[in-house]
C-alpha cells in the first residue's frame, strides 16, 4: 500500500513537470530581473552622484572666476568716449546706469571800451572759463549737472548743481541751483550766443540763476514748460526771509521739428534754445512766455541775479535801502519768438516789470524793454553776419535813467561748423539818457575766441 502511494506521488510530480515545464524557470527569471534592476539602480545612483559632484565643482569654479572678474576686471565694463570737440570726455557703464561727461570751455576776449567822460579801456580778459560735469547715476533717468566757473579771471564759483528725476518726462522734479525758467536770452547758453555778449535788455530784466526747486516737462511735440520757487537771492545766495521768487515759463513749438527733453530749460532736439543754425529742409518756430514775481522783496536783505538793485536805488534812495526799509512787490512778464530756417534766423523778446513799493511816499514804476536780433550765413555753417537792436524804457516817474538803447552788428566765424569753436567780432553803440536830459554814449569793440572741449 505504501509503495502504491509513493508511486502515485512520483507519477503526479512527473506529470506536473511534463505539463508545466516553465514554472520553475519563470520563478528563477523574475528573481534575476529584480537583481538586475537593483544593480542598474545602484549604477544610476553612482552616476548621479558623480554628475552632481562635477556640476557642483563647475559652479564653484565659475563663481570664483566671477568674483575675480568683479574684483580685478570691473574696468572692462566701463566705456570711454571722446567723439568730437565740444562733446566732452565721457565715461559710462555698459548697462547705462552710470554716465559722467566732463567738458571744458574757455572764452578769451579782447575789448576796447570808449565811454563818454572816461578813459578808453583796452583789456585782455579770460571772459569765461567753465568746467561742467553731467550725466546720470544709478538709473538712466536720474540726471545731474554740476558746473563751476572762473569767469573774468576770478576765483572758481558754483554755477549749477541740480538733479533731474526724469523717470517720466511729462513731469520732472528738479531741486538745486540752476537758471530760473524765465527769459529766452538768459536761458541761451553763453557758449551759443549769436553775438559776443547778451543784450542790455537781458542785463536789466533777466533773473539768472537761483536756488530752489522746480517742475519741468515736455508735453508731446508741441509744449515744454517749467515752474518753480526759489530763494530770490541769486546764485549761491540764501534766503533771509520768506519772500521767495516764483517763476514759470511755457514754450510752444508749432513748426516743424522734433521736441525732446534736455537742457537747462529742457527744450531739446530740434528746439534746443539756440538762436541760429536752423534745419536745411524745414523751418523751426518757437514761441515762449514767462512770468515771475517776488512779493515783498527787500533789496537790503536779498538781491536776485539781475540789475534790479540799481532800480531800487533810484526808487528808494541809498539811505532807505541801508535802513532795511526798501521793500516792494515785484512782478515781471516776458514773451519771445524764434524763427530759423537754414541760413537765416530771427529772434525777438519783450519784457515788462512792475515794482510796487510797500510803504507810502514812493512811486510805483513800470519798466519795459525789447530786443530784436537776426543773422544770415553768407557761407553756410561757417561765416555769419548778425545784428541786434535793444531798447529799454524806464518809467520816468522817478529820477534817474529814462531810456537805454543799443545797436550791435557782428561777424561770426564758426570754425567747427557749430558754436563749439568760433571766433566772434562785434561793435556796440550804447546810449543812456537820464530824466534830466543828459546823454552818455559808449562804443564797445569786442573780439572773442571760444574753445570747447
Brief summary:
With about 450 residues, the chain is α+β, with helices and mostly antiparallel strands.
Overview of this protein structure:
With 453 residues, this protein is α+β, with helices and mostly antiparallel strands. The chain folds into two domains: 28-72; 74-452, Porin, CATH 2.40.160. It is 20% helix and 47% strand. The protein contains six helices and 20 strands. The protein has helices at residues 2-19, 23-72, 184-187, 200-205, 308-316, 318-322; strands at 78-81, 89-93, 99-115, 121-136, 142-149, 157-165, 172-179, 209-219, 223-230, 245-255, 259-260, 268-269, 284-298, 327-341, 344-357, 365-379, 383-393, 401-414, 422-434, 439-452. β3 and β4 (121-136) form a beta hairpin. It is elongated, with a radius of gyration of 40 Å. 31% of the residues are buried. The model is unreliable at 14-20 (pLDDT under 50).
Amino acid at each position: 500500500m505504501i509503495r502504491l502511494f509513493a508511486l502515485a506521488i512520483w507519477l503526479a510530480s512527473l506529470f506536473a513537470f511534463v505539463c508545466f515545464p516553465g514554472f520553475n524557470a519563470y520563478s528563477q527569471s523574475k528573481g534575476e530581473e529584480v537583481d538586475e534592476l537593483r544593480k542598474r539602480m545602484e549604477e544610476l545612483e553612482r552616476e548621479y552622484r558623480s554628475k552632481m559632484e562635477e556640476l557642483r565643482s563647475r559652479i564653484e569654479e565659475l563663481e570664483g572666476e566671477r568674483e575675480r572678474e568683479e574684483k580685478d576686471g570691473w574696468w572692462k565694463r566701463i566705456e570711454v568716449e571722446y567723439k568730437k570737440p565740444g562733446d566732452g570726455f565721457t565715461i559710462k557703464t555698459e548697462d547705462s546706469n552710470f554716465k559722467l561727461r566732463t567738458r571744458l570751455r574757455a572764452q578769451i576776449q579782447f575789448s576796447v571800451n570808449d565811454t563818454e567822460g572816461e578813459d578808453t579801456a583796452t583789456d585782455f580778459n579770460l571772459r569765461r572759463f567753465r568746467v561742467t560735469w553731467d550725466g546720470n547715476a544709478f538709473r538712466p533717468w536720474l540726471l545731474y549737472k554740476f558746473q563751476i566757473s572762473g569767469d573774468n579771471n576770478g576765483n572758481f564759483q558754483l554755477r549749477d548743481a541740480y538733479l533731474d528725476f526724469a523717470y517720466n518726462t511729462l513731469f520732472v522734479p528738479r531741486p538745486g541751483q540752476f537758471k530760473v525758467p524765465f527769459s529766452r536770452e538768459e536761458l541761451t547758453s553763453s557758449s551759443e550766443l549769436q553775438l559776443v555778449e547778451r543784450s542790455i535788455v537781458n542785463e536789466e530784466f533777466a533773473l539768472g540763476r537761483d536756488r530752489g526747486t522746480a517742475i519741468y516737462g515736455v508735453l508731446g511735440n508741441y509744449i515744454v514748460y517749467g515752474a518753480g520757487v526759489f530763494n530770490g537771492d541769486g546764485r549761491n545766495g540764501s534766503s533771509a526771509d520768506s519772500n521767495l521768487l516764483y517763476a514759470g515759463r511755457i514754450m510752444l513749438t508749432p513748426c516743424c521739428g522734433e521736441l525732446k527733453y534736455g537742457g537747462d530749460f529742457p527744450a531739446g532736439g530740434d528746439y534746443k534754445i539756440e538762436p541760429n543754425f536752423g534745419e536745411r529742409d524745414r523751418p523751426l518756430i518757437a514761441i515762449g512766455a514767462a512770468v515771475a514775481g517776488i512779493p515783498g522783496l527787500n533789496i537790503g536783505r536779498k538781491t536776485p541775479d539781475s540789475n534790479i538793485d540799481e532800480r531800487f536805488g533810484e526808487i528808494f534812495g541809498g539811505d532807505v535801502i541801508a535802513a532795511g526799509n526798501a521793500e516792494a512787490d515785484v512782478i515781471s512778464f516776458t514773451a519771445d519768438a524764434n524763427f530759423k530756417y537754414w541760413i537765416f534766423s530771427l529772434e525777438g523778446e519783450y519784457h515788462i516789470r512792475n515794482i510796487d513799493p510797500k510803504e507810502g511816499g514812493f512811486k510805483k514804476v513800470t519798466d519795459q524793454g525789447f530786443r530784436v536780433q537776426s543773422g544770415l550765413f553768407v557761407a553756410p555753417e561757417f561765416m555769419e553776419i548778425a545784428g541786434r537792436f535793444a531798447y529799454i524804457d524806464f518809467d520816468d516817474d522817478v529820477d534817474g535813467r529814462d531810456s537805454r538803447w543799443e545797436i550791435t552788428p557782428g561777424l561770426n566765424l564758426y570754425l567747427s561748423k557749430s558754436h563749439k569753436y568760433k571766433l566772434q567780432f562785434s561793435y556796440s553803440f550804447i546810449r543812456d539818457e537820464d530824466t534830466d536830459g543828459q546823454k552818455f554814449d559808449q562804443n564797445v569793440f569786442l573780439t572773442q575766441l571760444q574753445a570747447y572741449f
